[in-house]
Design brief:
Four Helix Bundle (Hemerythrin (Met), subunit A)
Length: 134
């Protein structure tokens, strides 16, 4: 079994990573900021959008892939993927495009953490089921 649903969402998250990374690079070039966040908050916000995506997405996608490889139904995987994608888009939008608007930030983190939490519980459940019924 190939984890195609996870692959689909991983590709979308990767595209979002490219968008956020490009915004950091472009700002650095336009404002001649070699390292750090410079004098304003704009670059710091953009860097955190990119960094936060980099910090949270790997564990979420690893859990998704393992759940998919262990037979979690497609509808559940799609729901998890949508939560992750919308959460990461909202959080990244908040920091990179909307100057840290708290509403999008909170929605983004809530969806992301909820997705990771649900995935972890599902993974533990699958392990228990496989141990009980090999």
């Amino acid at each position: 079994m190939t984890p195609t649903i996870t692959l689909f969402f991983a590709a979308l998250v990767a595209i979002w990573q490219l968008v956020l990374s490009t915004r950091v690079i472009r700002y650095r070039r336009e404002n001649l900021v070699e390292i750090g966040a410079g004098k304003g908050r704009t670059l710091e916000f953009r860097m955190r959008a990119q960094g936060n995506l980099t910090e949270y997405s790997p564990i979420a996608l690893i859990l998704m892939a393992l759940l998919e490889l262990n037979g979690l139904p497609a509808f559940a995987l799609i729901a998890l993927g949508v939560m992750l994608l919308v959460g990461r888009l909202a959080h990244g939008w908040s920091f990179s495009f909307a100057d840290g608007q708290m509403r999008y930030r909170v929605i983004g983190m809530a969806l992301t953490l909820f997705m990771i939490g649900i995935s972890a519980v599902l993974a533990l459940g699958l392990v228990v089921l496989q141990v009980i019924n090999p």
